[in-house]
Design brief:
The chain contains 3 helices and 11 strands; from the N terminus they run ββαββββββββααβ. By secondary structure, the chain is mostly beta strands.
Length: about 150
């Protein structure tokens, strides 16, 4: 039986810490330390035109829930539009990414299972430097494949 070292906690809206990371505004709701490594949870505010690279997480699964706006999800050779209320799951090892193709921003919840991705996100705080992110991604078992398909 696993013994958890974590304790219950609450984060109020006025206590949130937002950071600029990988070109988006991110609020980390659950860190490695807060969940004893079980998962990470982020709220991500993505500006119009925002896009991730096509990439693969080898160490964690990814779940995305669209709170506001619309994003286009990519996984493998497929893509699908995801509007408010849509949930998506990408198991580790699946090439994936997303893009905000509209003129309006999108807001999503982004969860990784298990935790660890929070450390990468925090290391990327500040202006997006593509070369820095690609180099550091490998340390977190993330492979950057290139831009999303058109």
């Amino acid at each position: 039986m696993r013994t958890y070292k974590t304790k219950p906690y609450v984060i109020n809206r006025d206590e949130e810490r937002f950071l600029q990371s990988l070109g988006a505004q991110v609020s980390i709701k659950a860190t490695w330390e807060q969940t004893d490594g079980a998962f990470n949870l982020f709220e991500v505010n993505c500006p119009a035109g925002y896009a991730t690279s096509l990439h693969i997480h080898y160490a964690e699964d990814v779940a995305v829930y669209v709170l506001e706006g619309t994003i286009t999800l990519y996984w493998g050779n497929e893509k699908q539009e995801a509007a408010e209320g849509v949930y998506s799951y990408q198991p580790r090892g699946t090439p994936h990414g997303f893009r905000v193709e509209s003129d309006t921003p999108a807001r999503i919840l982004y969860m990784t299972i298990p935790a660890g991705f929070d450390r990468f996100v925090m290391e990327q705080e500040g202006p997006a430097l593509k070369s820095k992110a690609e180099t550091e991604a490998a340390r977190y078992k993330i492979e950057i494949l290139g831009p999303l398909p058109e």
